[in-house]
Amino acid sequence: MKVLLIYPYASFKVMPPSAWMPLSLSYLAAPLLRAGHEVKIFDRYAAQFRAGQDKSAVDRAMLKALSEFRPDVVAFNTVSPLVFDLVECAALVRHVFNGPILAGGHHVTALPQATLNKIPQLDAVICGEGEYSLLHYIEGQNHHDIPGLWFRENGSIIGSPPVQIPALDQLPFPDFSLMDLGYYLNRSLDTIRHRYVSTISLLTSRGCVKKCEFCSESLTYGKGVRFHSPEYVAELVYRVYKDYGIEGIYFHDNDFLINRARTEKICDLMMKRGLHKQIIWGIQARAEHIELALVKRLKQAGCVLIEIGIESSSQAVLDAMHKDSTVEVNQRAIKVCQEGGMGIHSYMLTGVEGETQADLEQRLEWLKKVRPNSFSWSQLEIHPGTRLYERLRRGVFETMPWTRDAVRDYYYQQNLSAITAEDRAVWMRKHYEPYQRLIRRYNTIRTNRPRRLWSFFAMKAKEKLSRQGKK
Ligand code: SF4
Fold first, then answer.
1. Co-location of 132 and 204 in the same domain
2. Over 90: is that where the pLDDT of 134 sits?
3. Average pLDDT, whole number, for the chain?
4. Quick check: CB of 210 below 6 Å from ligand 1?
């Protein structure tokens, strides 16, 4: 069978020179290829890097890929903020394609019935981890026996709960050769913060044991955490280094340090294979698992960055989000990383319930005081499938239209803070952005060798010239 996997378009005014790869499609493709099927990925996100903001050019390229490849099955991945793209693409594809069209990802896992109701062109959706369910679907297994599959039957929509993949090591290595490597392997400052390197992202565990109110991680991966073995991880790192000549790896695991013995073993195996001398890497971790001895071990093994979801410098806000963390623990984690010479990035959330301008000021002051190497503030988004959605927006997505404007309005209007989005934007421009730019410049110069810095500035100059040429 031939399967075309499609990743959604995100509509950025300025595309970054590179980005974290959409790992999910590489993972989905691997078991299909192992079973002898043919797979192609059409990545609408990467395609816009080449087509610019011309969405119709991306649509045309997608339809061209469809007519050239002539798949038996088309499958989309989607997330709630981009579900309008699934709606538009499903209509475009159905116009010229008679075979089954499927969708998977966080959004359909949260709202399988609503997805099938709203998008009549879809034949089925797959909830949870899709690797084996998609394989079973294309191999013709009875729909009733496929975990996580929702479909129409006799005028109703029926489905079954997803089942976790028990032994992750049985999954084949993700296939990156299907991705647009001409885009993703470009050097970038954004994948391993401020390091101008070419990277690939990997996922070595799935799930999280915490229950932050805004987070949808456990929705797709289910309860608890499952791991790839250290041997699997070291071999995978070695292969991607050898096959793609990358300079860095970003591990997307929610908490790379949750199992300390496993983390130490991964470090040991990477050093044993000499990988610590060839590549640098970055991880995400919970603050409470950051200890000095472990930080030193990570550093020896090539890790240069730990990213923490600190979210807020107010204990009341952390408690309200059910973050199960304290300001003190977060502060200590930053200090430990500084002592161990490890780069640290702090993710912060803004737009939380009741947020005032004084809260923004206090948070920025806190960052200036504790001085993580870098930080980012993301706008809180209330996604279907989260506990926050159930508390504040239950039923909204199910009943609203899934058009581009309606979905954008939904996300735009969900500002829960006490100041308006406009006032916050003004404050951010005046106070947050200059400080963030300053830190970014400082770290870029501090952490990159002169030759690499030179190639970064040369790339920026080229970009500027090409923009001027377009004008
Ligand atoms: S925000 Fe992080 S710690 Fe909280 S539930 Fe999500 S993945 Fe887990």
1. no
2. yes
3. 93
4. yes
Structurally, the chain folds into a number of domains equal to 2
Tell me, yes or no, whether 121 and 228 share the same domain.
no
Does 249 share its domain with 368?
A: yes
In a domain, 173, yes or no: no
Task: Phi first, then psi: give them for residue 348, nearest 5 degrees.
Answer: -120, 150
Segment 323-350 mean pLDDT: 95
Q: Which long-range contacts (CB under 8 A, 24 or more apart) does 397-404 make?
A: 397/80, 397/111, 397/114, 398/111, 398/114, 402/83, 402/84, 402/87, 402/118, 402/119, 403/84, 403/87, 404/84, 404/88
Q: Provide the CATH number for the domain around residue 72.
A: 3.40.50.280
In a domain, 182, yes or no: no
Atom 2 in ligand 1: which residue has the minimum CA distance?
A: 254
For residues 126 and 267, state if they share a domain. no
pTM: 0.93
Q: Is 217 in the pocket of ligand 1 (CB under 6 A)?
A: yes
Both tokens of residue 262? 């496993």
CA of 286 to the centre of ligand 1 (A): 8
Quickly tell me which residue has 């640290």 as its tokens. 344
Residue 5 forms beta bridges with which residues? Answer: 41, 75
| SS3 category, 277 | helix
Q: Output the residue whose Cα is nearest ligand 1's atom 7.
A: 254
